[in-house]
Task: inverse folding
């Protein structure tokens, strides 16, 4: 059973205008994550544009990444879909390809009730046999998991973790305590929203599900290790150094920024999936200036 702790690094998924995954470019992005020693690779998350890819292309991306990881680094794979049966099939594909766990978001068009969410997650877990991490991402799904629902789901066999959006530092400790009160021992509590994750880690969050970690793994791993080892001063210094990037993420969205970073670093030339547009030249220049000033990795 996968133990989701530490840094889970989320790369983009380069693809062409027809939605076909560029496997060589994906490998170029994934190999540095593995070399850096990230605790897991978060493939086909929101940064990986999972809703924009077909089942076949998702399978190709998973097979390529698992092949690179060679069983040494766990691969967490986004398996979200509008329909429960589609999510089951995606999770089955991920399991067959060797993924360690699935990241399941409550993708919806018609707003879903708590009971519908519970049945959706329980069915995917039961019928796929793939360990499932709950993906709480209300900014895109417009569904917010309450502690009560997470507590209920945490007792379903095969549901092992939750990825929550980290609130700001004043609220994260209370959020974590609310979850700790309702989940069983061993259930992993981790956080996304990169610019708030230092507070979550210092409060006791077990995992940083990181967009930036998918492009600068050494830097993000250093921050995680400092927090894990109780070196809060070092962790805060590293996080302070990253403030210019956090400002870019907030201004232009992390997805658009990391596509620009990948291009500027010469890792791949892919654009985000349409209808998402790449950053305009003036915004890309701001990203370039920040990168030049920080000289990361």
Result:
């Amino acid at each position: 059973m996968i133990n989701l702790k530490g840094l889970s690094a989320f790369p983009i998924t380069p693809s062409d205008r027809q939605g076909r995954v560029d496997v060589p470019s994906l490998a170029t992005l994934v190999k540095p994550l593995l070399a850096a020693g990230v605790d897991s690779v978060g493939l086909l998350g929101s940064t990986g544009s999972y809703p924009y890819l077909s089942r076949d292309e998702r399978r190709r991306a998973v097979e390529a990444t698992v092949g690179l990881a060679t069983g040494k680094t766990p691969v967490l794979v986004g398996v979200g879909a509008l329909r429960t049966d589609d999510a089951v099939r995606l999770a089955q594909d991920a399991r067959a390809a060797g993924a360690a766990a699935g990241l399941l978001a409550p993708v919806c068009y018609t707003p879903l009730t708590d009971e519908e969410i519970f049945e959706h997650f329980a069915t995917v877990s039961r019928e796929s046999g793939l360990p499932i991490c709950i993906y709480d991402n209300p900014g895109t799904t417009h569904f917010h998991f309450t502690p009560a629902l997470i507590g209920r789901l945490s007792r379903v066999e095969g549901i092992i973790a939750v990825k929550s959006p980290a609130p700001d530092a004043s609220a994260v400790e209370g959020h974590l305590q609310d979850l700790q009160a309702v989940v069983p021992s061993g259930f992993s509590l981790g956080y996304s929203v990169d610019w708030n994750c230092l507070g979550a880690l210092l409060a006791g969050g077990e995992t940083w599900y990181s967009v930036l970690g998918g492009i600068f793994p050494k830097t993000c791993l250093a921050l995680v290790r400092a927090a894990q080892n109780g070196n809060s001063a070092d962790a805060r210094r590293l996080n302070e150094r990253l403030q210019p990037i956090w400002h870019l993420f907030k201004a232009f969205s992390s997805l658009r920024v990391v596509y620009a970073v990948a291009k500027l670093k010469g890792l791949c030339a892919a654009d985000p999936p349409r209808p998402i547009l790449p950053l305009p030249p003036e915004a890309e220049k701001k990203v370039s200036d920040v990168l030049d000033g920080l000289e990361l990795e």
In short: Residues 6-231 form a domain with the TIM Barrel fold (CATH 3.20.20.70). The beta strands are 6-9, 40-43, 75-78, 101-104, 132-135, 159-165, 188-192, 207-210.
